[in-house]
Amino acid sequence: MIPSNTICVSEEGPANALALNKDATQVVIAGRNVFKVFSIEENDFTEVCNLRVGKNLNLNFSSIDVAWSTIEENTLATAATNGAVVVWNLGRSGRSKQEHVFSDHKRTVNKVSFHLTEPALLISGSQDGMMKCFDLRMKEVARTFISNTESIRDVQFSPHQAHTFAAVSENGNVQLWDVRRHERCLQQFTAHSGPVFACDWHSEMPWLATASRDKTIKVWDIHAKPNLEHTIYTIASVGHVKWRPQKKYQVASCALVLDCAVHVWDVRRPHVPLATFAEHRDVTTAIAWQNDPNTFLSTSRDCSLYRHRFSEAAHPVLWANPHGVCVSARGDVTHAAPDCPLPALHTNPASDRYVPGLGRKQPTAGSLRPQAQAALERLFPGGAASILTRYSGEGRPPCCVVACAKEYKMRGLPTHELAEHNAKVARAYNRHMVGHVWEVVRCVYGRPPPREPPEREPPPPPPAHTNSNAVEEEPLEEVEQWAETQFHNSGVLGMPTLSIYIPPHKYKIRHDATGACGPEGSGWVSAASAHYVDVETADWTLPEEAFPLRAPPPAHQPSILDTTHGRTAAGGASPGGSSSPGSGSSGSNGSACTAPPNLEQTSSAYPGAATPEEGESGPLWVVHEALRPHVEPAPLLALALRHHADLGDVQTAALVMIVLHEHRSDLFPYIDEGLQEHWLLGYIEFLQKHKLWNVATEVVRCAWLSSVWSLSQQSSSVTVCCGRCGRRARPRAMCDRCLPHPDLCAVCRQVVRGLYAWCQGCSHGGHLEHMRQWMEKHQLCPAGCGHHCQLG
């Protein structure tokens, strides 16, 4: 949106430069495809003439820069892309206004400038590193100045000394020349670390402002020896700079790239602009102030020409936060506040807009009234002074992360013991989420070794039965399954192999008939291999139904908890103990329970079920181990470590990987090596910030990545000093001054032959055992230097 007092005109193409006449009533814009003169009206631009006319439109009409004589009303000069300097006369009759063409430069001309008091002198700066002064009366080159540097980007005559001009080049140098002496420059100094693109003289002070690619604007005092007075820091390379008329400390600038706005700076407050004009949609290519300090013109690559009024400027300082807070790694807080904050300025409420991200209204262009505008310019420089206050964190409890780092263990114990210790440390400092991660590591990677299964006692002999015709059945017992064992499947429907008890006299008959081998005196055999059926009491009549009917469940089936193995047992049988093949098969396949340890108690727990003592058959128990779903812990643990790292807790992520030891490879498919290195280096940097050098070295030592553990072999040096003279000795060499004298023990004053221990603070030492005995009783150095020695 264009402010109400800003006028704009569109061009046929982008303009590279503009210039005002001496009365600031007309403006000329020049570019590769545009060359026009406009009259500046109150609310509009009026085109006066178009200089890009004629039959032969050659490169002389494609301009990089344009200048208007400050004395002659109708004299213009342009710098063409083909290296020509063209002089134009607006008072010339006819369509063509071209007066003369100077073709003395071999490369592109970057800048042309008229002398401020001599209307016939015109100077140019070219890409060939030369500057030429043209005499318009003689229409020839008066003098040639060779800079012996790279290309010249700008030349400007000084308003304070008539015969002095400044030239800036792409190597960062600034040269001051006397127009009467072309042999060598008066002064030369390095102004910037990059190419200098523009310069401008102050109208009142002997100051020269330079703009460079290094994103700075520097103000130099050229009164005697060049001295840097002010430096302004911008966000992009600065392409043009112009001092604001009648304002001693204010200068306007525009960028070469990125930034499309025109900024007005106060050199006394170099980090934030005083005013900003953001009407252009592309990079601004030229700016020029009118005689009034409140109005200036600008052109851009967006093919537009604007006239800006200072009353329509936006002021970034009004919505910038004047306070700053920063927290150090050790918990110290620093607060910066303005020494003289700006008072509440009266703005136009209709011009303010609400910004959700800032949570407050943001002033826009033209929001200040004239009185507030003047007050802002007056108080703006004083707001640069700030008061810095530091609040130390001494005396408060230490950081829980630092405290945990001091007490964590990384090696020396099995994984589950290290995880258990670290979990206790984390919970002691109220880091319960971290403690939970350590508990998971302990449970997953801390399983005890499998135990050998105990020998099973033989079952008691079956009781005598009064009814010989009843089918004798005993409850089934599960073959105990232990850790890391699986069921062995038989050939009968793939069901788990179970043990079944066959009475001795029945088993003997079968043993004699089939010749099967079994334990002597034992009736326990595999139910899947035995295929046991009592042929004497079996009912061989065909059933009336195609499929046997399932018996109704008992009225009450209590569950019994096997305390030995932690399993739930429940059994059921048909009332009356039916032993038909159909019912027996149904009961075996349908039960999924576990045998209780006490069969008598289990049998009596069912109403209506007869016990073996009563002469009836007991319930048939079929048991097997419950199948548990297998869960892979590695991806879940990797996800937990990533979550903690995303929260900024690289300590947990790095230490869990270290503590896992040989199980660390389980996480490699889910955590790439680059992320592992990032965690380790981040944790090491954190420890070094808190001066936990020993812990950081321990982490480097336990690292499994070569890029991390190799840190211990880098930048490690021990400086050796002579114990007598204190002079620094060469590595692996004796002291040059004390070479004839061998090293003596500071305790016994004898020559040390063997292990030698010394203090790194005072360089005195001796026999290892002598130094140990001395330090156990004393704190000062045995050599008498007064140093508090410490023997590691």
TrEMBL record:
Residues 570-592 have a biased composition (Low complexity). Keywords: Metal-binding, Repeat, WD repeat, Zinc, Zinc-finger. It holds the Pfam family WD40. It comes from the Eukaryota. Residues 449-458 have a biased composition (Basic and acidic residues). Residues 449-476, 548-614 are annotated as: Disordered. This is GATOR2 complex protein WDR24. It comes from Bombyx mori. InterPro entries: WD40/YVTN_repeat-like_dom_sf, WD40_repeat_CS, WD40_repeat_dom_sf, WD40_rpt, WDR24. The lineage of its organism: Eukaryota, Metazoa, Ecdysozoa, Arthropoda, Hexapoda. Belongs to the WD repeat WDR24 family.
